[in-house]
Amino acid sequence: MSSTRQDAWTHDEDLLLAEVVLRHIRDGGTQLQAFEEVGKQMNRTAAACGFRWNSYVRKQYKSGIELAKKQRKERKGKSKLSESQTSETPTIYEQNISPQENIEQNIEQSISNVIKYLQRIQNEQGISETAIQENEKLKQQIQQLTQSLEKQKQSYDSLKNEYESLREEYSAMVAILEKARILTLQHK
Q1: In order of start, what are the domains of the chain with their CATH numbers?
Q2: pTM over 0.85
Q3: How confident is the model at residue 78, as a pLDDT?
C-alpha cells in the first residue's frame, strides 16, 4: 500500500488540479471525479485535492470556471439540438461542407472563445491595476498620517513637559506664599 503525499503543493500541481477540474466542468463531469483523477496522478487523496481546490485554487480561476460552465451549457444545447435534428439535418458530406471546412469552423469558434476569455482576463487585470494604484495612494496617505501623528506626539510631549515644569513652579510659588503668610501672622 503506497502512502499518500502530505507535502506542500507546487504551482505545477495547482495548474494540473485547475486544468482537470475545469475539463470536468466543461465536459459535464463532477468535481469529485476530477479530485479523484488528480489524486491518482499526484498520489494525493481526493479529499486533499478537494480541499486545495476549494481553499486556494478555485479563487484564482473564477473566470475560467465561468467559461467552462458556459462551454458545458453550449455543448448540452448543441447535443440536444443535434439529437432533435439528426434525421432532418444533413451530414457535412450532404451539406457539401468538407471535413476541412468543418474543422476550420470549429477552430474559428474555439479561437473566438479564447479571445473572449483573454478579454475577460484583461478586464480583470485592468481592475487589478486600478486596485494596485488605489492601494499605493492609500499607502502614501497612511505614511503622511503616520508622520503627522508623530509630529502631534512630539508636540504633545513638549507641551506636557512645559505643563509639568509650570506646575512645579506654581507649587513652589504657592509654598513660598504660604510660608510668607505664616511668617506675617507670627509677627503680628
Answers
A1: 1-76 (1.10.10)
A2: no
A3: 72
